[in-house]
Design a protein that fits this description.
The chain has 677 residues and is an alpha/beta fold. The chain is built from 17 helices and 27 strands. Bound molecules: alpha-D-galactopyranose (GLA) and zinc ion.
Length: 677
């Protein structure tokens, strides 16, 4: 069960993006950097992100000497390298000579040279140059003893609407619809508004001033772009592997990023990595809430390759410089957040950036080494102290998460809910709905996985799928089997309305046979105005809960009603139902409840599924990692005051003390308790 993702490293990887190419005329600084990194307990850097013009200054003129020298020096000092391919930013010579590499936006306007992550994913010239430079990199560095892994490009993002992409889209559709345009017409309901196509050549990407009314087409464009980005990423991976096949690869994801289905990209990667930049200490939510949102994405990344730790690839030492308000992390938060990553299954704590540059748009972005250049800044000292703490928790390396509970969160559903002309665009909030449900469970000390509807359900006693609006093929049957075999499955309003092409199911929502499994049919999904509300009452204990935003009129077939509406035209009608189906239970929650009320309902459901909560004090985040014969319990105090958690037993690794009963955590403090299992 223990998977060391970096066998060369004993413990946690600690480091970050480092750009020595910006300092080649300052050997004194490069030397000092190594001293400072060692002092801060840094054992790894990411080199080469956006470094293309530093080693291919002109087409075909390669000079990797600086990179080799830097990698050698780092390695000689015990610092390993994650080496990036440079495709995230094109040199000026490339755009000038190969203008096809430049992206066209959704208005059909071609960009100018500049910025980054702005290449056309279908440009043959770009792909050829990327393959060429990647191959050179691989030939020069694959056998370097300091090389840990490849980092493909950087934070893939965006769409391209150029003619080449249009052509690729059409070819993709031909394949997807078996070369049969009538299949496409049927799947996309194109007789609507006279939008019937006669050939694939007539189909365009969804330009902003073009075709956006065919929802199946919009969705397929998202899938196509995911496919195209993934294809290009795969050519990079293949190029590197042609030289040497055993070096792992990753690419860095972004929090709640919507453009591409990360789960498709994940299939090509050895490890998941992501860049975490929450807006800390803001004036609209508690620190606990900000951090729990961040944890949500950690856990989602952990779930994309379940049997392996993931990597925190970037985080900000101190502050970022691109958020609405660039506030510094308050003392102690750096360690708290780094341990949060570890607690959710990361084996790394990495930063952007090791040293602040002097110029351009990231000159004020936080770094381990400030312009001041010394080792006594607050930020440096916090990084250094974290470096020491990481040594104390070495044994968590390779352990992984597991949970009896999962939430379903699908990209296709995100896209389809956003795009459908229904509900209210102000309050649909698919992401927020899933995250809020997840957070309520976290506050009960349940640490649910976040999975896709295509994932294996068999590990879980209970699965919650809020707003599962779009159903992939076979999902109805899969849910049925899961419940029949004893699982507890809960869905909400706006479930099972459309198929994978966004065509509505006939004969009652939820479709694909789910209305039989849940024993209800949804006849109306009513959207409330923000100041509207309703109430529901639970028959068992007379408890009431507040409804916001959405409420459904349900036809109860053979489910048991557990709560009814109190007001409005739905008064006394079913709001929440359960049906015993096979050995399990299928819950239908026909309305959106206020967060806390949803939490209470979920607690009931957990109870009925026999899942024990792990009570922790308010503001304490709790996660567990498992390895052979051991588990590691993490307690993170997000409060500004000390708190005491009861029922803690085991060896606390940071203090190296046995705990037998309770543990008190100071403001922002962390405990990592190893327990024999
Ligand atoms: C992203 C990028 C980095 C850097 C940071 C700044 O995560 O990957 O190159 O721009 O943002 O926060
Ligand atoms: Zn393009």
């Amino acid at each position: 069960m223990r998977t060391k993702i970096f066998p060369k490293i004993d413990g946690i990887l600690h480091g970050g993006d480092y750009n020595p190419e910006q300092w080649l005329d300052r050997p004194d600084i490069l030397k000092e950097d190594i001293r400072l990194m060692k002092k801060a307990g840094i054992n790894c850097v990411t080199l080469g992100v956006f470094a293309w013009s530093s080693y291919e200054r002109r087409e075909d003129e390669f000079d990797f000497s600086w990179l080799k020298t830097v990698m050698d020096d780092l390695y000689a000092n015990g610092i390993y390298t994650i080496l990036a391919t440079p495709s995230g930013s094109k040199p000026a010579w490339l755009d000038k000579k190969y203008p096809d590499a430049i992206r066209v936006d959704e208005n059909g306007i071609k960009a100018h040279h500049g910025m980054r992550e702005n290449h056309c994913m279908s440009s043959a010239d770009f792909e050829r140059r990327v393959r060429f430079v990647d191959r050179k990199l691989a030939e020069n560095f694959s056998d370097h003893p300091g090389l840990l892994m490849w980092h493909i490009s950087n934070e893939f993002t965006g769409y391209c609407y150029c003619d080449n992409c249009k052509r690729e889209f059409r070819q993709y559709l031909e394949k997807r619809f078996d070369n049969d345009i009538e299949k496409l017409n049927r799947a996309w309901w194109t007789t609507f508004w006279s939008h019937t196509y006669n050939s694939f050549d007539e189909v365009e990407p969804p330009f902003l001033n073009g075709e956006r009314s065919i929802l199946g087409q919009n969705l397929e464009w998202r899938r196509f772009t995911t496919h195209n980005v993934c294809r290009l990423m795969k050519t990079e991976i293949d190029t590197l592997r042609e030289v040497r096949a055993d070096i792992p690869v990753t690419t860095n994801f972004m929090m709640m990023f919507e453009d591409y289905d990360y789960r498709v990209l994940a299939k090509e990667l050895d490890f998941i990595s992501w860049d975490s930049y929450p807006f800390l200490h803001n004036d609209y939510e508690s620190l606990e809430d900000t951090l729990l949102d961040n944890a949500f994405f950690h856990v989602m990344c952990a779930g994309m390759i379940k049997d392996r730790p993931f990597m925190l690839m970037e985080s900000a030492p101190g502050l970022v410089n691109w958020s609405p308000y660039n506030k510094y992390k308050r003392p102690g938060i750096h360690a708290l957040m780094s341990f949060q990553a570890l607690s959710c299954g990361s084996d790394t704590v990495q930063y952007f950036q090791i040293r602040k540059g002097r110029g351009c748009s990231e000159q004020y972005h936080g770094a381990v080494i400030d312009h001041l250049g010394t080792d006594d800044t607050r930020i440096f000292k916090e990084v250094e102290s974290l470096g020491e703490q990481l040594l104390k928790v070495k044994e968590i390396q390779g352990s992984i998460r597991r949970s009896e509970v999962a939430l379903i969160y699908d990209w296709d559903v995100r896209w389809a809910v956003k795009d459908c002309w229904a509900l209210s665009n102000e309050t649909k909030n698919y992401d927020r709905t899933i995250m809020d449900a997840w957070k309520e469970l976290e506050k009960m000390g349940i640490d649910p996985d976040i999975i896709s509807s295509d994932d294996d359900f068999s590990d879980y006693k209970m699965i919650i799928a809020p707003m599962l609006y779009l159903l992939h093929d076979g999902i109805g049957e899969k849910i049925g089997k899961y419940v029949e075999d004893g699982g507890c499955f809960a869905v909400t309003y706006f479930t099972g309305c459309v198929d994978k092409d966004t065509l509505c199911y006939l004969g009652g929502f939820p479709g694909q046979g789910l209305s039989d499994i849940f024993g209800v049919i949804c006849e109306e999904t009513d959207t409330l105005y923000p100041k509207d509300s309703n109430e529901i009452i639970f028959s068992e204990d007379g408890r009431k809960a507040t409804v916001k935003d959405y409420q459904e009129l349900l036809r109860v077939k053979d489910a048991k009603v557990i709560a009814t509406y109190e007001q409005d035209y739905l008064k006394d009608k079913a709001a929440v139902t359960v049906k015993e189906y096979g050995k399990g239970k299928a819950y239908y929650i026909g309305c959106r409840l206020m967060k806390k009320d949803m939490g209470v309902l979920l607690a009931d459901l957990l109870g009925s599924a026999g899942i024990a909560q792990r009570p922790v004090p308010e503001g304490v985040e709790y996660h567990v990692r498992y390895s052979d014969g051991k588990k590691f319990e993490f307690y993170l105090n997000t409060n500004e005051t000390p708190v005491t958690t009861e029922n803690v037993r085991g060896r606390e690794l940071l203090s190296d003390k046995d705990i037998d009963g309770s543990i008190t955590l100071e403001k922002y403090a962390v405990a990592v308790v190893a327990v024999d299992t």
